[in-house]
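FIELD: query
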Amino acid sequence: MGRGAIVFPLGWPVALEEAGTRIPPASHKLPGNQKASRLYRMMRVAQDLSEIIENFSILDDWEDRYRYLIELGRDLEPLDEAAHNDHNKVRGCASQVWVESTVVHGDDGSVRLELRGDSDAHIVRGLVALVFALYSGQTCQAILDIDAQQLFESLGLSSHLTPQRSNGVRSMVERIKKDAREALARG
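FIELD: result
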């Protein structure tokens, strides 16, 4: 692993390229350069996941953890109304969930997915934000290799979600992995 990599408690390395470990605050303006902008978003995702894991470890009460999930959902970038369509709708969720995947080709030949989404339920919207913190901006191969269930177990969510919500999370993860497989197949 190179300089600037973060290893989460779960053992997943998230490379921050050679940008170092200084990560600008979320309010920092994105650079005009598109490549720098993508790198910035990847760094924010890595920091956000690390922060989410840390914040979950601090919160002892499950009511507080659910409130925190709702706050994560409120921070999701809004999904355009036109993207609330059948193509983006995730099947297998009790609540309505939409996931929009954008394929990004890197100069190094990598293929990444950037994710946007929404849900009509507050807690589920927070689960969407958590899954996006794990997968958005990752290479398609990394998306296929990362086990979201391990994250949910480490946060204690696996035993605190209803079976319907657990099935919905699995459906969302499978949808993202399907999009990653298709993006890899297209090259």
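FIELD: remark
The chain has a mean pLDDT of 80.
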